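ok so heres the complex, four chains, lmk if somethin looks off
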Amino acid sequence: MSIIFSKSCEYGLQAALYLARQPKDSPAHLREIATDLNIPYHFLNKVLQTLTRDRIVVSRKGANGGFALARSPKEIRLMDIVRAVDGQSSLDGCVLGFPACGDETPCPVHGQWKSAKGVILDMLEKKTLAELGKGLDGKLEFIAQSMIEAAEK
Amino acid sequence: MSIIFSKSCEYGLQAALYLARQPKDSPAHLREIATDLNIPYHFLNKVLQTLTRDRIVVSRKGANGGFALARSPKEIRLMDIVRAVDGQSSLDGCVLGFPACGDETPCPVHGQWKSAKGVILDMLEKKTLAELGKGLDGKLEFIAQSMIEAAEK
DNA sequence: CCCAATTCAGAGAATTTTGTCTTTGAAAAG
DNA sequence: CTTTTCAAAGACAAAATTCTCTGAATTGGG
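and the predicted structre for the whole thing:
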């Protein structure tokens, strides 16, 4: 599990990234995505259902079916996926766990944490799937390679 | 649970902070700490055992026993506690979960995440219990208040 | 010196949360 | 209809969190 995301969310982000790289008008199959990204089939099923309900991806049943992004990758921010899967509140809250911590009654690291979180939120709010997919251009093999190495352990 | 720490770690940080505010030569009892911070007694027991084994706090049994910091609050950084409880590796790893992500084969957000993590690690490495305790001076009631509100939910 | 009370140490069980799998159903295409 | 593919409920497993219980060290009082 990543530091800040649940596994569901991690898988959701990976899958969305996968779909962003997919040629237009050719939806990807659950089976294909799960295999390529080395994600448990049925767990990914559930995550994609969530993203579908949130209208971040669209699904089609039957032959020629599959999953595709609901809108242009330029219009899907990482934050959209995080919010859909882990919920907004997953990024709120005091880093030391003090329930009453806030701008008025700050915990001792409130200020510093706020600026660190600012960098993170900024990243999530501004990065779109389009930019991320571009970052992967010319290294299609990155993900696959990544997963092969993981499987070897 | 905080975004980046386990509950164990959160409790460890809170307890250490508590001990830093404690008058010299008067160790705090487990029962007292757990009650004041609203932490499950036996879970805190375990966390404090970890911190004791790591020589961040010292313990004494029997009457007049209890827990105290093993050295001056000025010499205990947040990172020491995080490392002891959650382990160093809890802060490593790709934020999107790609196992092969690294400086040579970066994931699309590797750079941004690295700088965000830099701010966090910097905070953990530089902030000592002494500075944090000072931050609480004059608001002894902060923690208690915090916990009362939490309990009301 | 011995005993009783106090307090931490630690193993391990129970619970909760999170992640994974099983199974059945429903929609679409040909 | 038959095949393909997503939808969804719910069982199961693993991990994190919380609780139970027993033991061991220390102190102070008889």
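quick notes: The longest strand of chain A covers residues 57-60. thats all i got rn
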